[in-house]
Structure prediction request, 652 residues.
Amino acid sequence: MNVKDDKNRKFNTLELIDSDSIPSHLIKNHIYKWNGYEESSSFYSIPAYLEKNSTKLKSKYLNFINNLGETRINEKTINDHLSLENGYNLWWMSLVAEKSPFKSPKIFDCLRLLALEEIIISKDIKKVILHSSSKILAEAVKILCDNLDIGFSWNPILLEKKSKRKKISTLQDIYNLLPVQTKNFISYFRRLCSLWLLKKQNKTSWSSGESSLIIFSYFDIIEKSFLDKNRFRSGYWGSINRVMHDIGKKLNWVQIFSPNPIISSPNIGLSVIKKFNENKNENGFHAFLEGYLSFSCVKRACLNYLKIIFSTWHWKEKYISQAFQPKGSSVSLWPFLKNDWSSSIRGLNIFQNFLLIELFDKIMTDIPKQKKGLYLLENQNWERALVHAWRRHGHGQLIGVVTTPIRYWDLRYFDNLSNSDELSNSTKSKLKLRPDFIALNGPSSLKFYLDDGYPSDELLSVEALRYENFSNETLQVKVVKNKVENYKSTGNVYNVLILGQILYPQTNDALTCLEQAISNMKENINITLKPHPNCPISITNYPNLKLKQTNESLEKILPKFDLVVVAGSSTSALDAYILGLEVIVFLDKSDFNYSPLRGFDDVMFVTNPKEMSRILGLKLKSKDNVSARKKIIDHFFWLDKRLIRWHQFLKN
Prediction:
């Protein structure tokens, strides 16, 4: 090989780095980082490419999911194999089909791999050298290179040496050696045992008749100021009780128990709903979904689970994996999604779905006929079971309510119907599981649904119950005023609030990043953490931050702070931004930008301590024009203190 050929070979080699640092000896052409959004003159970023080409790559992944259910195994599609005789559909309840980035974190890897394929083709790459400790990533990139007929080599320089196997001496040691799926089942059945206490609830006082309405929701964001007075107000549903009272309707609630700092155990949950039910006229009647657990329900779920195991035992990975290559692509998504597939077909996910089917069948038989029902719409597996059970048992109109602004990368809300020339039978079966109407709380979410191809005559416009206090301009004025007064009264000490998210790793990373960042700062900063209700955090793990912790509502605490640092996907970033606070969003370098403020020029996104320290210093002294943000409210939400849209919708 002559010198010229060697230079060309180097130029057509792509070095893929799966670490924070870039080894100095690498060829300087075509260096791409698998993690992180920052780029420089010496390297590029796969996530940054994904963001720049998001529309095309997102559409490609959604089409792949829509078509996957049409894969044939023994002359039947996956969708048909998983359609039960009673009409329930296990495929569209599966982890793979749900597309939840919070349950299936490898979705980001799938999109990055599709981005990598485009880069390789557009730059005429002849070889990829991967520097990574991940065997899964190495497998996926090797398959891509083999399919493109280009070279591949893996430099596992970051692989840690396996530690010597410890002597097994305790039950915990034995548990740690168990397969992940087995441990998941053990944890789940332990949780079921704790939830068995909810069977003691009152299930006989449902409101009935033409004036009754039922809501299905989570029992986790309960406003404490109301709870202290034995009154019910949900952070999801705001003043819905008042609306129902105004129009003379009686309200039933089916709550899904979710432990949180205020209601941390089933025993406390039982005590709370008992008090709520004593004032049924004001609070509505409440019951837990898990209160319908029984040995017969669990037994039937177990038998159905064993049947599905028996009927799919011959499905060979060799043939299934071929279905995970998107149409027109050389990528195989199997290495990233095979664990989700396993859980969806033979693991905990499909057992949970059988049990959800049993519970919703039981509760729909028990409650009096309901003319209208609402539920918290997030396109999760339990919602598919609810929709089918509701119709199967002859109840009336069913409306899914989206209570938060839809985020671009939250794939649960997207089906790419507008870009599908002809719907597959699998997709048609999914559309049967949608509610009669979807209630949206603002122009932004409505546009997402319309652009995705959802029928406009099935979409309703309602006020944002979760954000109804934003219609109070005095709250914004209070935030701005306090920002000035706080700084003067505390002797040049800044007050910073950290808002956690539902996933612990991302919240932990944000706190760790901030801890490292402030070590180099001269400003005096008081830091308070407000964790997500479903993600408790021990503040003692971050001694250098000297954290305080609060669980009060954002409406009460935001005026006390100068700046807010938000962990990744939390929609509470929007609360702080609209009310006029400076906002910094910590992005997980190996995840999507889920923030509702994605694309806002005056919101800073950081991924490392150096960036955090620099931006924090700038933002603390910023005098941003808060009044300009008031227009943002109209972009996201329909607001009216009178809740006229809700009154009209529920009346009619």
In short: Confidence is low (pLDDT under 50) at residues 1-9.
